[in-house]
Amino acid sequence: MLESPSIFTTLLAFLLVLGPLVVVHELGHYLVGRFFGVKADVFSVGFGKELAGWTDRRGTRWRLSALPLGGYVQFAGDMNAASAPGPVDDGLSEAERAQLFQHKPLWQRALIVLAGPLTNLLVAVLVFAAFNMIYGKVVATTQIAVLAENSAAEQAGLKIGDRIVAVDGEKVDDFTDIPPLVVPFPNRTVQIAIERDGREKIVPVKIAEVVDTDEFGNESRIGRIGIGAGKIEIASVGPVEAVGLGFEQSFGVMRMMMTGIAQIFTGERSVKELGGPVKIAKYSGEQFSLGWSAFVSFVALISINLAFINFLPIPALDGGHLAFYAAEAVRRKPLGVRSQEWAVRTGLALVLALMVFVTFNDIATLPIFGG
Asked: Which residues, 6+ apart, have CB-to-CB distance to 296 below 8 Å?
């Protein structure tokens, strides 16, 4: 087992992960907003007190703030950093009114809000695409070539030579398609469709729960049925295929995140598996110490995480604003300013409460507290 990196390495790696991803996210909002002629009053990396900053010729204040756990773009017409709509803009000229975020058409506002998480998703896609081009893709048939003794698969009646064609009704074409349909579901029975002697049959297999431990002793619960592929090849891919695979891999990670959260709500997984800033910092330092490839892969995973969180329909997050716009599209008029303001306040309270919870959760899992 490897030793944990120093506090300095951990903090440095944490800033190298979160800082660029926050900037990229907010740049997505900013650039699309600028494209549509919206004036940005503030572009902040971090929250709270300004540590350093400057004002550009367009009147945007670019600032580095004290709390490095996110960032924001405050457009003209926003009342605060959470983009709650500001008061009625009496006394403004037509030119000034045209630069207000709230006076832009619904579709433009939606694209500006959507640009942030989509940019984070695009970062992950490009990282995975680059790795696909550098390392190629793994190719293996879905025929079972290895069957672990006394494994869940053997007990269920699977045999060497069986060809897996689907898992829980989802078609699989390559052996690499199988783990995402099995690993996230410890102790759950999955329906595996196989082809044997020219005939197809469905075999229910209950996944064994395995505690997987990484190089630093971090444990995670995974499902395993005890099968392996035969001949594995590495195939080179071109740019177009690499990007396509990048999208598939990114959506696959997001799907696993959705599965994990659903399992926490249903009680299949413990809330202790939720992670916050402390755990991200810990893993950042560990992946940083393993080299650039592991670290960049981790950055891509966190970028998907940021995109996923911001897609959630919680007021004060991008997904909450998109929910407001969906309601506006249906009602053919925006929600009242006061209603939006209270919704944003409630959303902020929910997000802050979640942050406090996951932070205490992270701290409780540190070795010093016996976690």
From this structure: 127, 131
